[in-house]
């Protein structure tokens, strides 16, 4: 009987210590006290809508009273889980661990939807889907070859013809032209549809806010999408700095580290 009691208490003590260690590891793995106790996966792999596939962390909730571009982005469909990202020429993206979803949108057949150009793909696609053709025409003013959409299609508003124009648009745009359509905003004002945008002479990149949540204290988190180089499907990014809340990112001043780029909070911009 004495041996049994000793064995019981030793076993109980072991699991108590193990539980304590696991809790400590969980807390130390998070860089933000607001979210340190999130334990379960936030991803529902069978869901095909962004707001359904990705749960919010505990104490955070979405405000889905979006309008216009933000509402359209947040309601975009995703391809089936485990669908790889493909480049324009049919090759699989080399690192599948950096993304957790792929937007169910056609991409141009040329190497044009890369880096910052991808946000223009989404912007033009939105106006096309909403039949706001005059808004697409307005975007042509920054192009190297500024042919408007309505002039280009000559009355053919089919989707294949739109894709032809999208290819033309992206071939004639770059970070220097795209930035003319954007204005800087504070990270505290972040909304769905805003973009983190860096323009350099040689290198440039952009990631777009696809979803947003907030807690009762006003702290915000968001989900990002991007394309990369070469031209490829637009995809939802994982968070390499915080597995516990991935794919959500914390809205805060300073550095924003994504799997393939380093942004600053001061890079946040909004379409004019």
Describe it for me?
- With 272 residues, this protein is of the alpha+beta class.
- The chain has two domains: 29 residues; 222 residues, no CATH class.
- The chain is built from eight helices and eleven strands.
- Strands 1, 2, 3, 4, 5, 6, 7, 8 and 11 form a nine-stranded antiparallel beta sheet that branches.
- The radius of gyration is 22 Å and the shape is globular.
Helical residues, percent = 25-40%
Tally the beta strands: 11
Helix count equals: 8
Radius of gyration: 22 Å
Low-confidence stretches: 1-40
- Return the domain count: 2
H and E order: HHEHEHHHHHEEEEEEEEE
Brief account:
This protein has 272 residues and is an alpha+beta fold. The chain has helices at residues 2-28, 50-53, 68-74, 117-129, 133-139, 149-153, 159-171, 175-178, and strands at 61-62, 99-102, 182-184, 195-199, 204-214, 220-226, 235-237, 249-250, 255-258, 261-264, 268-271.
């Amino acid at each position: 009987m004495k041996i049994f009691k000793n064995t019981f208490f030793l076993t109980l003590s072991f699991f108590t210590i193990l539980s304590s260690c696991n809790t400590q590891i969980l807390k130390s793995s998070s860089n933000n006290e607001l979210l340190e106790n999130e334990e379960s996966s936030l991803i529902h792999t069978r869901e095909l809508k962004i707001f359904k596939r990705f749960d919010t962390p505990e104490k955070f909730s979405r405000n889905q009273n979006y309008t216009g571009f933000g509402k359209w982005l947040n309601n975009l469909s995703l391809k089936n889980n485990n669908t790889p990202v493909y480049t324009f020429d049919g090759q699989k993206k080399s690192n599948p661990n950096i993304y957790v979803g792929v937007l169910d949108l056609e991409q141009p057949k040329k190497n044009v939807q890369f880096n910052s150009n991808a946000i223009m793909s989404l912007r033009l696609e939105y106006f096309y889907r909403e039949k706001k053709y005059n808004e697409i025409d307005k975007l042509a003013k920054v192009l190297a070859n500024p042919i408007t959409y309505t002039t280009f299609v000559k009355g053919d508003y089919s989707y294949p013809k739109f894709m032809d124009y999208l290819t033309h648009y992206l071939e004639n745009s770059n970070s220097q032209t795209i930035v003319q359509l954007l204005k800087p905003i504070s990270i505290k004002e972040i909304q769905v549809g805003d973009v983190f945008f860096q323009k350099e002479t040689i290198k440039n990149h952009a990631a777009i806010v696809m979803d947003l949540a907030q807690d009762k204290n006003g702290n915000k988190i968001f989900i990002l999408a991007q394309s990369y180089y070469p031209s490829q499907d637009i995809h939802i990014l994982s968070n390499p700095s915080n597995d516990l809340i991935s794919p959500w990112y914390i809205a805060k001043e300073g550095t924003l580290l994504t799997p393939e780029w380093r942004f600053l909070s001061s890079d946040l911009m909004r379409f004019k």
